[in-house]
Amino acid sequence: QAKASGKNCYHFYNREMNLKANQRLDLELDLRQALELNQLKLYYQPIVNARNLALVGCEVLLRWDHPDRGLVSPAQFIPIAEETGLIVPIGEWVLKQACLQAQAWRSAGCDLTFISVNISANQLRGRSLVDLVRTALDDSGLDPGVLELELTEGSLLPNPLVARDVLDEIREMGVRLVADDFGTGYSSLSYLKIFRFDKIKIDLQFVRDMLDDAGDAAIAKATIAMAHAFQAKVVAEGVETQEQVDELIACGCDQLQGYLFARPEPADPFQQRLRKRIGSEH
Ligand code: C2E
Ligand code: MG
Ligand code: MG
Ligand code: MG
């Protein structure tokens, strides 16, 4: 009997695996055409100054508007894009598009201090990121000081020496570098020294639980103190409650990002937000 059920289990497991693999293959085939078919969209999530809660910048977050599936989350398709190498043309499009959009807003008189773009591991394989950043800045006319690149440990540590050279060159252009999802990996403190980030993002998992979990609160506080010791700014992501805001401000956090302020939104509503800002200041 045990044998029979074992066999069934195996059978079931196999079918599940096939289903998953097929779904993945479907997504992969669709993703190959997503760029050409204009299904990829940039969303923008506001980031505010912790001192006065004024809008200062935004993070660019990719969305896939799939004809049958609706909006597909980047958590679902970025890993596929990375494994297939599709992230290279997609990432190129994201960076160029983001720079054009930021420059359009600034030319229209909107006061946007920075725009932050996520960079994946594959984009750091060779030296091509340097050329891509230069082209995106040249083509758009965007002030390099407005552009920030978000990097995770996972993208820097496989080949830290190459990554450091590439990032040093990009920093020399005047672009700022941000450590994303900080605290979730295994990096040592020398990670901060080697890559000389201008800004560090406290991962949302620590922000979420910092009021109930002493360990998460300690990580958030230590991250802020450490970032400041390295002359870096700190942004907390995933801020959803006023209590979190109060605690983060008390700890000296510089910038805040999260659903409490706004969800990621398309270019038009974000531009409305920037315009309202101009009005409220005069
Ligand atoms: P990330 O870079 O850490 O982005 C932050 C994520 O937290 C975003 O998820 C954002 O929508 C979400 N978030 C912001 N505020 C809150 C909040 O208050 N509560 C909660 N629960 N979540 C919040 P999203 O947009 O689903 O993106 C997921 C991940 O996909 C990103 O994590 C990033 O790693 C990746 N990603 C997104 N766009 C791009 C892109 O253009 N290129 C690359 N390489 N990766 C991207
Ligand atoms: Mg990010
Ligand atoms: Mg993050
Ligand atoms: Mg994340």
UniProtKB/TrEMBL annotation:
Q: Which domain of life is it from?
A: Bacteria
EAL domain location is 24-278
Location of this chain's protein in the cell: Membrane
Protein name (Swiss-Prot/TrEMBL): EAL domain-containing protein
Lineage runs: Bacteria, Pseudomonadati, Pseudomonadota, Gammaproteobacteria, Pseudomonadales
Q: Which stretch of the full sequence is covered here?
A: 688 to 969 of 969
